[in-house]
Amino acid sequence: MFYLSLIEHTLRLPPSLLSLPLQDAIKKELENIFLDKVIASLGLCISVYDIRKIEGGFIFPGDGASTYVVEFRMVIFRPFVGEIIAGKLKESNKDGLRLSLGFFDDIYIPAHRLPKPSSYEHDQENRYQVIWTWEYDSEDNNKFYIDGLDEIKFRVDSVEYPPVPIEQPEKPFAPMVITGTLDDDGLGPVTWW
Amino acid sequence: MKIKTPNAGALTNFEVLDFLKARGASKDSSRVIAPVASSEYKVYDYLVETPASRQTREQIYEFMKKCKTYKLAKAEILNIINIAPRELVEIDPDSFNFGICFIQCQSEPNLAMRSGSTVGSDIVENGDIEHSEMRLGDQVEELLDLVRNVFPLPPADLTSEAGMDKDREETGNEEQNEDMNETLDGDQIDGDRK
Fold it and tell me: Which site among B83, B103, B110, B168 would you substitute to test the A interface, given the most A Cβ atoms closer than 10 Å to its Cβ?
């Protein structure tokens, strides 16, 4: 789920941070820039792990701040294809499910990747939500519901990084989308097994 | 910005949790004071609910040493450590997706994997362990026992697991809740399919 990545970045240290020791100031600035952001084809940046090298410290003419070239390692969240992760149900509609990990919300299980056969019925309480049911057998007493109560284990099918759109779409843009499947043994809500 | 090494080593959930704890993350009210960002706290909250919160470094080293006999790929070891399966749910050799799908794993951090190994190259396409039946056969049970021994459950969970195992052997027990009944049926049917 988590990887370390070695990144080199040229950053400008704003003068407001000059009172701190250099390492702390650079770490703060790196966190401001990278934390909770997605780097394309790398993943979601979780945390600055350590700083390996600090070079530079030049002050460009006309600028009040110094510029450093920093080499550091960062903890990146990037699940690999085939990894099994447990998440909570965020919403469920007729296209499938959407799961959340707390720190990452764009996990989609499309309808055709649910265990077969499955069906859905509209939820009485929420207007646009549906409740998915896995009909394990044709008998009525073998229906398994996907309710929002327990954790749902899924396997990662793919991780995509859609390009940033030029115009603002209606839905908020998701820079990293994980598509998963529930269609295998042991996957699905934990209480099913 | 230049990415020098996209993959400088995989981390187990335990390692990330340990790293966040070392920075000062915790569950109680000292949240505001600790130098941990709110987005990092979200990761901490998620990891604390996984088996990784109950693991220790020694457990992981031990597991890494002992699982060498099974010749698992790095990604498979990572999966096992992160999920810490306790039961063998299913081995389904007929479906397109091979693999043992473990439930309730307790994994330990992959400190040994951090020495520059590329987990990405061992990508497990399907399930926790690929072609498990072909490769491991009877050893699957042994591997499961190894996982159970190296990553023991805390006492509270042990009693509930013992209760669950007992219930499974009884059939048609009215006191079982619906979930237990479903599990029992699922197991029986899977047994027939095998």
Answer: B103
Sort out which chain A residues have CB atoms less than 8 A from B185's CB and list them: 142
Contact list, B186 vs chain A (CB under 8 Å):
136, 192-193
- Dump pLDDT digits (tens) for A39-64: 888 889 988 998 998 888 788 888 88
| Closest residue by Cα to residue A66 from A27, A33, A22, A28 | A22
Q: Does residue B96 contact residue B126 with C-beta atoms inside 8 Å? A: yes
Distances B148 to A166, A183, B5, B142 between C-alpha atoms, Å? 52, 26, 36, 10
Query: Can you tell me the distance from the alpha carbon of B174 to that of A109, in angstroms, rounded to the nearest whole number?
Result: 35
Average pLDDT, integer, range B135-150: 72
Question: Which chain B residues have a beta carbon less than 8 Å from that of A46?
Answer: 16, 39-40, 43
pTM of the shown model: 0.70
Taking the CA of residue A97 and the nearest CA in chain B, the distance in Å comes to 19
d(CA B11, CA B81): 11
If you measure CA to CA, which chain A residue comes closest to B97?
A184
The residues near A32 (Cβ < 8 Å, ≥ 6 apart) are none
What does the alpha-carbon distance between residue A55 and residue A71 come to, in Å, rounded to a whole number? 8
Sign, CA dihedral B171-B174-B180-B186, equals positive
